[in-house]
Amino acid sequence: MTDLSGPLGPVSGPEARADGVDDTLDISGILKEGPDTDFGHVRKQGLAALTLGAVGVVYGDIGTSPIYAFREAVRPLAGDGLVRAEVLGILSLLIWTLILIVTLKYVLFLLRLDNKGEGGILTLYTLARLAIGKRSIPVLLLGIAGAALFAGDAIITPAISVLSAVEGAGLVLPDLEHWVVPVTLGILLALFFVQKHGTASISLAFGPITAVWFLTLAGLGLWNMAANPDVLNAFNPIWAGQFLIEHSGVAFIVLGAVFLAVTGAEALYADLGHFGRKPIALAWFLLVFPALVLNYLGQGALVMARPETISDPFFLQISEGLLPFLVLLATIATVIASQAVITGAFSMVQAAMQLGLLPRMTVRHTSHGQSGQIYIASINWMLLLGVVWLVLTFDTSSALASAYGISVTGTMVVTTILAIIYLVRSGRLSLFWTLAMALPILALEVAFLASNLTKIVDGGYIPVFLALCIGLIMWAWWRGTQFILARVHQQSVALEGFVKSMQGSSVHVIPGTAFYLTADPTVVPSALLHNLKHNRVLHSQNVFLTVETLRVPVAEPEERVEWQALHERFSRLTLRFGFMETPNVSRALPKARRAGLKFDVMTSSFFLGRKRPVVDKDFGLPRFLDSLYAQLARMAADPTDYFHLPRVRVVEMGEQVKV
């Protein structure tokens, strides 16, 4: 296996990253910061189009929360009937959670912390890692934890979103109540099966449809508020404080349900590179935030006027004649939200591979015009299996809500901690002001996390278990690659000395160009040593090709290719890609000609050095981690496909390495 993606940090020598089966490379990322996160490909569209697109993609998940969030928040109090103070208290909690978590933390603050326009948990980990300037295992573990929790959320979101929407059909036709689960599974199966064909063509409709959804939410809220405008008092945070004090016994449970209102907030940051800060912020302030608040207020007004609607206040907001329209629109909105989560999972996995946290997987671009449209088959089918299992296990969205929230709150806590580390170590804010701004948000998120942890026995163990499994895979892969590299480095031959020794060599020279892929440009690739040892030949031109993954999303054109002549028969070629790009060697090689390299692809060969890890420990946790790493190495995608090499011109040479 040959993975030439970048390491987890700018390191050198035996600490640089290997794939676990090949030579490795050392990179130091380039961090470019600016006040505005719009960059390159974002500016190709107008502000209005980007804002509308952000409505559909960025806010699809959080936009479906009104279907179940208020219902689950009032459920613990529904037994003895709701009173005015309780409804106002819950509404106040919902409103101020949206203000503090989404508006303050994400829209106004985190969207300004970008890496060349890109955002997300792994981007923030990268920023914190670079700000520290050296490898930090605690920061690494935070990055792994955040990514693993985000992946767990990607499995639960499609299940609860679509299930909650389809349940509304039971209010239209009660006989369909027994078909809720089959219909939900049918929708989800169709959604995952179309992923391989790409969604670029239909994604253009996501924005307008979701905009109609938010306008509908706002309209329903205003309609129900008209009969009871008293709910506007919920903007006063005193009601939230009084509720928490007077209902201390049940408040902890209610907080866990209230947090359902902000699930999907991570998408604001993760999709920063697709839309830019301004469109995301405009979409939030002009449409999404007002629509969410109005709908929650409308649901509160409804249950105060008609307590019997507490069973499903969202769908009972509307008249019976218009209910089918709302159910259909809600179903479409949840499918769009699920699509956004799936796309986000693909992007996160791609970034994790490039940062050395996951083994190489085949990434297929499904759109020629949109760089973010990718498809990873193995991740798609694993997500599908997880989603189907959740639907069959929990049956209802209310039951599934118990499993929801832990992964989201965990990711948010990790995000806040990484932001604190970055701001302090980078010098962008002093320690005092950083803590003054971040600690209140962190305390609130920790409270939400603690309240969600009470759901462990009711299904909350599922996202925790999923995150632990994914995190263990990431740690085993990172640990294995570091060990392999250290072992290989001990046996390496310095490139400079080797080139000098070959100047007067009598080795047989054959015509053509040999590209030797190597991740460490300072040592001789093992494939070249094996070629000399077994075939006893040397090509007339030998190019040591290194593919670097920069710690920026997209490599600049001027830094894409670097070529250096070492000797009349030897040269060094470096191709650079951003961590959000798929390394395409075939497409980048023509640019090497402009850098000075002369070659004919018809007389060229590409040599890969495969190193197969073999477990050398007898028992215990180290053996388990090594065995897991070895298995992951065998499952990794073919390097020829991953790096887009001309398959008919690839030569592989391998050896076993003990771990």
From TrEMBL:
Renumbered residue ranges of the record's region Disordered: 1-21
Keyword vocabulary terms for this entry: Cell inner membrane, Cell membrane, Ion transport, Membrane, Potassium, Potassium transport, Symport, Transmembrane, Transmembrane helix, Transport
Keyword Transmembrane: yes
Subcellular location: Cell membrane; Membrane
Topology with respect to the bilayer: Multi-pass membrane protein
Keyword Transcription applies: no
Recorded catalytic activity of this chain's protein: K(+)(in) + H(+)(in) = K(+)(out) + H(+)(out)
K+ potassium transporter C-terminal domain location: 511-658
GO molecular function, a single term: symporter activity
Protein name: Probable potassium transport system protein Kup
Taxonomic path: Bacteria, Pseudomonadati, Pseudomonadota, Alphaproteobacteria, Rhodobacterales
